[in-house]
Amino acid sequence: MPPDSQQPADPDKRSRDVESWATLRRFLPYLWPKDNPGLRIRIVIAMALVLAGKAVTLALPFAYKGAVDAMSATGAGSVEKGLTVALGLVMAYALGRFTAVAFDNLRNIAFERVGQVATLNLAEDVFARLHRLSLRFHLARRTGEVTKIIERGTKSIDQMLYFLLFNIAPTIIELIAVGVIFYINFGIDLVLATAVTVVAYVWVTRAITEWRTKLRREMNDLDGKALHRAVDSLLNYETVKYFGAEAREEARYANAARAYAEAAIKSENSVGLLNMAQAVITNGLVAAAMAYTVWGWSKGELTVGDLVLVNTYLIQLFRPLDVLGWVYRTIRQGLVDMAEMFRMIDTDIEVKDAPGAPALIVRTPTVAFDNVTFGYDPGRTILKGLSFEVPAGSTLAIVGPSGAGKSTIGRLLFRFYDPLEGRILVGGEDIRTVTQTSVRAA
C-alpha cells in the first residue's frame, strides 16, 4: 500500500491505551503499599503459589505420556512392568492434579486480603477526596451519579486484579514453558505453529471483542431509552390520560423495546461468531499438531505417549484462552471505570488553604463583609460590593426575595466559596488566610 493511502492510527484508541496504563500506574501503590509489609509478603506468597501450581500443571502431561507409553510397551514381561509403571504414574498424575488445585486455593486465600485492603484503601482515599472538593462540584453532579462512579471504580478492582495476576500472567508463563518443552521434544516447527496460532487467536479475539463491546454499548443505550420511555410515561399517567395519548405512548415504547431487542439479538449472535472463530483456530492447531506427532510415530521417532503429550498441552494451553474475550473485556471495562473515578476525583479543588495557613483564633467574635463581589457563574453576579458588619453579641437578619443571595452569604462565610473581590473577616482575620476547618469550627 502506498504511504499516502495508509490509514492513520485511531487517536481515540491510542488515548484509551495511554489512559489505561496511567490508571494502572496510579493504582499500583495500593496493590504494593510501602507502609504494609504484611500485605507485600502475601503478594509474594500468592505469586510463588501461582508459579508452583503452574510448574505442577506443566509436569502432569509427562506423567500422562509415561503411563500411556508404559501401557503400549511390548515384549517379554512388558505387561507386568508396564502395569506397575502406569499405576505409579496414574497415582502421581492424580496427586499432581490435587496439588495444583490446592496451590490455586491457597493462592486465593493468600491474596484475598490483598484485594480487599487495596479496594478499601482506595475507597477511603476517594471518599476523603470527595469531601475536599468544593460545594460547586457536589451541586453540579447528582449524588447518584457520583456514588455509581465510585461503586463501579472500586468494585472492578478485585476482579481485574484476579484476571491480570492469575489468568493473563500465568497463561503467558505457560505459553513460554510449553514453547520450550515443544522445542526440546519436537523441534522448532511445532513451536512456530503454536506461536502463530496463539497470536492469531489473540488478535481475532481482541478484534471481535472490540466489535462486541460497541454492540453491547449500543444495546445498553437502547435499553436505557426503552426504560426511560416506560418510566416517563407512567410518571405522567394523568397527563397521558388528559390528552388521550395512550396509543401514542404504547407505540413509542414498542418502538424503543423493538430496537433494544434487535440490538440484544446482534450482541448474542456475536458471541456465537466469537466462539466459532476461536474453535476454528484452536482445533486447526490441535489437528495439525496431532497429525505431526502421528507422522513422527509412523517413522518411529515419536511414541503414542507423545501424541497424548502434545494434545494435553494444547488443550491445557487454550483452556484459559477460551475466556480471553471475556477477560479482556472485563479488564478493559475495569480500567475504564477506574479511570472515570480518577478523573472525577482529580477535579480541581476550588477552595484551598493557603500553604502553612494557621488556625483561626477568635478573640473578638465579629463578622464583616468588606466590599464582597461574588457570582456562581461569570455572567451573573449575585453579590456586588456587599459590605456590612455584625458586632460581637448582636444579631443580623438578612431578608430578600429568592435569588437575592441570602444563602450565598452563608456559603461564603463558611468558605464553601471564595469571593471574587473583597474580604470576609471573622474576628478581624481574613478567612482566606486561615484554615477552612478552623473557620467552620469557630
What report would you give on this structure?
This protein is 73% helix and 5% strand. Helix 2 (37-72) packs antiparallel against helix 9 and helix 5 (143-186) packs antiparallel against helix 10 (324-345). Strands 2-1-3-4 form a four-stranded antiparallel β-sheet, covered by helices on one side. It contains twelve helices and four strands, in the order H-H-H-H-H-H-H-H-H-H-E-E-H-E-E-H. The protein has two domains: 13-345, ABC transporter type 1, transmembrane domain (ABC transporter transmembrane region fold), CATH 1.20.1560.10; 367-441, P-loop containing nucleotide triphosphate hydrolases (Rossmann fold). With 442 residues, it is mainly alpha-helical. The longest helix has 55 residues, at 78-132.
Features:
442 residues; mainly alpha; ABC transporter transmembrane region fold; Rossmann fold; 4-stranded antiparallel beta sheet; 4 strands; 73% helix; disordered N terminus
